[in-house]
Design a protein that fits this description.
With 1423 residues, the protein is an all-alpha fold. 63% of the residues lie in helices and 1% in strands. It has a two-stranded parallel ribbon. A two-stranded antiparallel ribbon has the order 3-4. A hairpin with a 6-residue loop joins strand 7 and strand 8. The longest helix is centred in the N-terminal third of the chain and has 32 residues. The protein starts with 10 loop residues before the first helix and ends with a helix.
């Protein structure tokens, strides 16, 4: 190919396009979609783009342009074309179009036309800006190419046929008829397809043309001339007029070319559209009778070609945005003051918006639908703001000025009519949808159009008498929320959502429409205050909206359905209160006096009118459904609205409620219900006042409102409550006294206690004293929970307890805020202090047996005070309780009621309790003080000095001669201290499982580090107390992630080694060792920095101990037949063997702990986990393995021949069960990522398969280790084991079941090894239960054998309670066998025998087993 920059610059391109001898990948009869374009066309496009990019870059800096003279400063079409030069982008483009016209015209071949269009598309892509004349000429040329071609070449095909594959008979007939008509008309269908691709290429060129920038000044001279005129003032008006004219003509040209391009591309060819293959309707388009021509034409295009047309409209919008931006730049340079557009331009924009909306009608393909919805929202963002004057925008600091309407309306109604049929969106994407379009995506795109997202403009509620988009969308949402009863309209549902859920989504859409959203297009300052959209509705519409919300809310409240209806009512209250708040903020924050009246009317229409409409019912019938719904709705307005809304609600409602309460003397049942409802209503309103005031204080840096909104009502409320407080109760219906106490509680939390006078304080004092007597007086007996009297008094006392708690919290908080409180405040504080002392003394009183059954109202009081008050209130109560607990522990009491009370408030007192507890510092009692007291002797006989003297006896001559005892002797005194500590720990452990416990980690870890390793019996007692608390902190991942958590790595690494040694010592207390293991596991996962590895721990702690124990076991254990029976007896030192057997078990369990920690930590530690897992499996299967991190393999245990023949009676053979159980413990940990267990199974499954192959060739009973491994693996999720491995394990499971069920005598001993066999039997049964539930076909051939073994287990009745759980598992497995769909013949054959065995087991000594036997027998009866 020649260089295109020769003297005839474009001749080589033209020759390349028209020369038929050029090789290509495209023939005249081939399909020319984007995937089959020939290589020459691609090369032409690339060369043209690079060439015109070079021209555009050199044109911007070329000095030659300054010498170009012209008759005018601005460009015209004639000038642009007459001055065409190959050295300028615009001129070169005009010359290129002229040169390529023969190749692109209808006379050329498809090949040459496609190449020419690709070359032109590259040129348009490389051109940075175009003048109006060049754009118009090239655009008209391309638009004509988008039309259906009048002349199409006839290709001489020797034969034509229809491929009938995958076609119905009707489709074949229709295609044959179309082919026949085409041949008669002299038209080839393949040529038609190629012609369609030419039109698509023309559309692609038009896309590049429309999105290019406008060059108002074709030369640098014209721009300089206009700027000089602007500076001198000469002929500026004429020059400005010409510049604006070019800009406006460019906007109109872009829009007209885009619409013409889409219309021409949609034109049908001469063949009937029904019979033409390429013009059949695309997927996702509903055939329907459309009113507009464009809709009918679009319906005949395939989806891909419709999408191309929509992209053309999108590119026209991009070009329009460039023109507007260019105009703004010109306006700033020339001080252009006008901002309106002429009517012709606005009409073109409105026509373009209407045209785009018309394209949406009937579209159902989700891809095109998403594309069009986003395009319509883009139309709103770009065009809608141009229809209104600049001074019509809404600004927060200036308010809303008068709106100047344009002479032409933006077609919001047409856009709404286009998108409304798609609301609500019910779309379920197909499975494995590659486009990933979801219902939420379609819903968000639709809501963006309905809400006019990111549209920065303001309009009146009605533009020229027509509702705007916001009003239209809101009415549609309201119709979904409350369907019209005059019609048969029902909210559409896809079956997955109920009607209530449909309405909840309508409320959610209303919130999206009117309330500020994070995705809003307003600036940040405005987004935080209110949404502009709420100003685009009229007051009468907001009044209508409020009426709809109240009606639907009342219907939801009165519904019997408790779930969705209540959620609907809650959603409505939340939306209405939020809208009221932002409407009030709109009035307060915008200070433009010209618009204050309108904005105030918006708030009055939604809030004041609603209050006036709903409040009268509160005086006449507050107990009715309408009254209760109105109370809830108005209370939500008061809580969620602003201060003005709160004052309006209080002034309208509280006087009416007080009027109802004035008839409190001897009310009848109806009047009593009214009184209760009125009292509850006052309580709700006062709670709403508290919420509003708290928000006010947060927004105003803690400044309190004065006067308080409740100040004028407080005195009357106290008097009404005092009058009702002592009224007699008939115990029928809802308690009036309880309602009065609830109102008093709300008053204490909401009102200003500093404004109380002496009379009010006296009334409150009397009521508080009566309530204190009620909650502190202990009843002689405990009433039945179902007794109505008990229910009444329980409700009454709980209400009193909560009220006293709120009083304590409120009074203590007031003391914190104002130390110099006024005299009336001091009087209330004195009452509070007295009540707090009485409640505290009662809470720590001795606990009797009846107190465990009765409700502790004094504890409820303290918990309420902690949850309602500040952290300082909780700290005062917690500190007092802990101080009393220390005194009780020092007195060596059998119980500790202070700790019981503390345990209750830690559960129910909120997060402040935990924070206060962990932040306590001396001289207050702390957790370290509690631990120290728990670690002292009960009788207090040893003083600290005596204890130090006792410790000194361990140090013979100083630290260098330190002599540690071989074992720590435990005496009775230590055991009693440990047991008392473990009776107190359940009250402390929950407080160490919260995130605040991170504050105590450092002090607790230091305490543990000081006594590790324990040097005395009291060091071990300290570990018994502190290790469970430390384990609670470390096991809480939320606590570890907290910012206040501080983990000193040096202390942790020091503790890891000593904790490992502590865990391995069997002479330590078992519960303390378990807590130490938990601490070690958490430390290895969260804190180990790599300085102490699993290899070092194994080498230092495990290796020697394991070798020693295994050698002792093998040396002291042998078997011999009994002289009287054939049983095998153990002849050895029983106590020594037993201790070393436990030691080996501990070692294997400890290795599983290290392995699971390494696996959960992942990374480089995964290799350590794999080595440990391999070691455990090899030890279980063969007894020989290379120790982890060791190269050589060593035989740890040698099985005897007698042990292999009788594995149940051989102790060494039973050792193989232990590593299998340890491996099961390792993979049962649920920390870490979800894939490490799969990795462990993959690592070890080959070893298991090899052991299974050896077992299949052996005639001995199944090896217990291999059996345990298989049972452990079968209990894992089936997804971790492939089917072949599972089938390989099932035979040995069945063989193990048969072996153990026939040798039940081996399970009756008390030795450790026999307990292992019993646990193995339970594990086998659990694995079989799972397999019968998930894959019963795999067990079908073993059904008879399994049934026989299970009957042996069920028939056993002479063993102790430890065997009963295995029998329960056997019965459950027997039930699963009966319910399995396979092996019906085998089950029928065994049914009678099974029923007989189960009938005999009905007299089993265990009631649980008897019930299970009856149930399973009934199942077998029904086979």
């Amino acid at each position: 190919m020649h260089n295109p920059t020769t003297t005839s610059p474009f001749q080589s391109w033209v020759e390349t396009c028209t020369d038929p001898s050029n090789p290509d990948n495209l023939s005249d009869n081939s399909n020319t979609d984007s995937g089959n374009v020939d290589s020459l066309a691609v090369r032409l496009r690339q060369e043209a783009r690079l060439h015109f990019q070079h021209l555009s870059s050199s044109d911007s800096s070329s000095p030659a342009d300054n010498d170009v003279d012209g008759p005018s400063a601005l460009s015209t079409v004639a000038q642009d074309l007459s001055k065409a030069s190959s050295s300028t982008p615009n001129g070169a483009l005009a010359l290129l179009v002229s040169a390529l016209r023969p190749a692109i015209s209808n006379d050329g071949s498809v090949k040459s036309r496609m190449r020419g269009l690709h070359c032109l598309e590259g040129a348009l892509e490389g051109t940075s800006s175009l003048t109006l004349g060049v754009r118009q000429a090239v655009g008209n040329f391309l638009v004509e190419l988008c039309r259906i071609q009048g002349e199409i070449k006839v290709h001489n095909a020797t034969e034509s046929f229809v491929d009938a594959e995958n076609l119905t008979a009707e489709e074949v007939t229709r295609r044959l008829q179309a082919m026949e008509r085409a041949q008669q008309a002299g038209i080839d269908l393949n040529s038609l397809a190629a012609s369609e691709d030419v039109r698509d290429s023309a559309v692609a060129c038009l896309k590049a043309l429309l999105r290019s920038r406008l060059d108002i000044f074709p030369t640098q001279q014209s721009k300089k001339k206009l700027l000089s005129e602007a500076s001198s003032g000469s002929s500026l008006a004429q020059s400005m007029k010409e510049a604006k004219s070019v800009l406006f003509e460019s906007i109109e040209l872009r829009l007209k070319l885009a619409m013409r391009g889409v219309r021409y591309r949609c034109e049908s060819d001469p063949i009937d559209a029904e019979d033409k293959i390429m013009m059949s309707a695309g997927d996702g388009y509903d055939p329907m009778d459309l009113d507009f021509e464009i809709e009918e034409k679009l319906s005949k295009l395939p989806r891909a070609k419709r999408s191309l047309c929509f992209e053309l409209l999108d590119n026209a919008l991009d070009g329009l945005t460039e023109d507007v931006t260019r105009g703004n730049s010109l306006r700033s340079e020339l001080s252009w003051s006008e901002s309106d557009f002429p009517s012709s331009v606005l009409k073109s924009m409105a026509k373009f918006a209407s045209f785009t909306a018309s394209c949406l009608h009937g579209e159902t393909d989700p891809r095109c639908l998403m594309q069009l919805l986003r395009l319509l929202n883009k139309v709103q963002q770009v065009i809608c703001p141009l229809f209104y004057a600049q001074n019509a925008s809404l600004e927060v600091d200036r308010g809303m000025s008068d709106i100047i309407e344009s002479p032409v309306d933006f077609p919001s109604t047409l856009i709404f009519d286009a998108v409304a049929p798609y609301y609500p969106v019910y779309f379920t994407p197909p499975k494995n949808d590659p486009h990933k379009i979801t219902r939420d995506m379609l819903h968000d795109a639709l809501m963006a159009v309905l809400c006019e997202n990111d549209v920065v403009t303001a309009s009146s509620p009605k533009t020229n008498g027509v509702d705007n988009m916001i009003v239209l969308a809101a009415r549609m949402f309201m119709e979904r929320l409350e369907p019209l009863k005059s019609t048969e309209y029902h909210p559409p549902s896809n079956g997955a959502e109920s009607e209530e859920e449909d309405k909840i989504e309508a409320v959610r859409d209303l919130s999206t429409l009117f309330l500020p959203q994070k995705s809003s297009g307003e600036d940040e300052s405005m987004k935080q205050i209110f949404s502009i959209k709420m100003t685009r509705v009229a007051p009468n519409f907001l009044s209508e909206l409020s009426s709809t919300l109240t009606r639907v809310h009342e219907e939801a409240v009165s519904s019997c359905a408790p779930d969705n209806r209540k959620s609907l009512a809650s959603a409505i209250r939340q939306f209405s209160s939020s809208l009221a708040y932002f409407l009030e903020v709109l009035v307060v924050c915008t200070g433009d006096k010209r618009s204050d009246d309108r904005k105030s009317s918006l708030w009055e229409a939604f809030v004041v009118n609603t209050i006036n409409r709903l409040s009268p019912i509160l005086e006449s019938s507050p107990q009715g459904m309408h009254g209760r719904a109105s109370t809830a709705y108005l209370a939500s307005l008061a809580a969620g609205g602003g201060l003005e809304t709160l004052n309006q609600v209080l002034s309208a409602c509280i006087p009416r409620f007080l009027g109802v309460l004035s008839i409190a003397d001897a009310p009848n049942s109806t009047e009593k219900t009214n009184l209760v409802s009125a009292m509850r209503g006052i309580a709700a309103l006062m709670s709403s006042c508290r919420v509003t005031m708290e928000r006010w204080e947060r927004c105003n840096s803690g400044v309190r409102m004065h006067p308080h909104p409740l100040a004028s009502y407080l005195s009357l409320i106290i008097e009404r409550i005092a009058n009702i407080f002592n009224s007699p109760e008939d115990d029928e219906g809802e308690s009036l006294a309880s309602a009065a106490v609830a109102a008093l509680e709300s008053m204490l939390s909401s009102g200003d206690l500093r404004s109380l006078n002496d009379h009010e304080v006296a009334l409150l004092t009397n009521m508080f004293s009566l309530m204190a007597e009620a909650i502190l007086t202990k009843e002689d007996g405990v009433a039945a929970s179902g007794d109505p009297a008990f229910a009444f008094f329980d409700e009454w006392k709980k209400s009193c307890a909560r009220t006293i708690g709120v009083l304590i919290a409120t009074s203590l908080c007031e003391d914190e805020i104002n130390d110099n409180s006024i005299e009336r405040g001091n009087k209330l504080t004195e009452i509070t202090d007295l009540l707090l002392r009485r409640v505290m003394n009662s809470a720590v009183s001795c606990v009797s047996s009846s107190d465990f059954q009765a409700c502790r109202y004094d504890w409820i009081t303290l918990a309420t005070a902690c949850s309602f008050g500040t952290e300082q209130v909780a700290r005062k109560i917690v500190s007092d309780l802990l101080s009393r607990a220390v005194i009780e522990l020092r007195s060596a009491q059998s119980d500790c009621p202070s700790m019981m009370a503390f345990s209750f408030i830690s559960h129910t007192g909120g997060p402040n309790v935990a924070k206060a507890f962990h932040m306590l510092t001396p001289p207050s009692a702390t957790v370290i003080d509690i631990i120290n007291e728990l670690c002292k002797p009960l009788n207090g006989g040893k003083s600290p000095s005596n204890e130090n003297a006792t410790r000194g006896q361990l140090y013979s001559a100083g630290v260098s001669h330190l002599q540690l005892p071989a074992t720590i002797a435990k005496d009775q005194e230590e055991c009693h201290s440990v047991e008392r500590a473990y009776s107190i720990l359940p009250h402390l452990i929950p407080i160490f499982q919260c995130p605040s416990a991170a504050l105590s980690f450092v002090s607790l870890s230091k305490l543990v580090g000081q006594v590790l390793p324990p040097l005395s019996i009291w060091d071990e007692v300290k570990l018994c107390v502190s290790l469970p608390l430390l384990a609670s902190i470390l096991s809480n991942s939320e606590c570890i992630r907290t910012k206040s958590f501080v983990g000193p790595l040096t202390t942790v690494n020091f503790m890891i080694r000593h904790l490992a040694e502590f865990v391995m010592r069997s002479d330590h207390e078992s519960r303390a060792r378990s807590a130490a293991a938990s601490c070690l596991f958490s430390m290895l996962i969260n804190f180990d920095d790599g300085s102490l590895t699993s290899q070092e721990i194994i080498d230092d702690v495990i290796v020697e101990a394991l070798f020693e124990s295994l050698q002792i076991l093998q040396a002291n254990t042998y078997t011999t037949p009994s002289p009287t029976t054939n049983d095998v007896l153990f002849i050895s030192n029983g106590s020594v063997i037993e201790s070393h057997f436990f030691r080996v078990e501990n070692i294997f369990n400890f290795m599983s702990l290290l392995g699971s920690a390494a696996a959960c930590k992942a990374g480089s530690h995964s290799k350590d986990a794999a080595l440990i897992a391999t070691f455990l499996i090899e030890m279980a299967c063969t007894g020989a393995s290379s120790f982890p991190f060791s190269i050589t393999s060593k035989k740890f245990v040698s099985w005897s021949e007698e042990g292999l023949n009788h594995p149940s009676n051989d102790r060494l053979t039973n050792l193989s069960i232990l590593p299998a159980f340890s491996f099961g413990n390792m993979i049962s940990v649920h920390n870490g990522n979800p894939f490490w267990r799969q990795r462990m199974v993959y690592t070890t499954i080959s070893l298991v398969s090899k052991a299974l192959q050896n077992e299949s060739q052996s005639r001995n009973p199944p090896a217990l280790g291999v059996l345990a491994v298989c049972a452990t693996l079968c209990c894992l999720p089936v997804s971790l084991l492939c089917e072949s491995n599972l089938k390989q394990m099932i035979p040995i499971l069945v063989a193990g079941l048969v072996h153990l069920s026939k040798d039940l005598s081996a399970l009756t001993g008390f030795e450790s090894s026999l307990y292992c066999q019993s646990d193995l039997l339970g594990l086998i049964l659990a694995a079989l239960i799972k397999l019968f539930a998930l894959s019963p076909e795999a067990l079908s051939r073993f059904t008879t054998v399994i049934i026989s073994s299970l009957m042996l287990l069920c028939a056993c009745t002479k063993y102790d309670d430890s065997f009963f759980p295995k029998q329960i598992l056997a019965l459950q497995c027997l039930e699963n066998v009966a319910k399995a769909p396979s092996s019906r013949y085998a089950k029928l054959k065994e049914r009678d025998q099974v029923v007989a065995v189960l009938s005999a087991a009905v007299d089993h000594p265990s009631a649980v087993v008897r019930q299970a036997v009856v149930h399973v027998r009934n199942v077998w009866f029904l086979i």
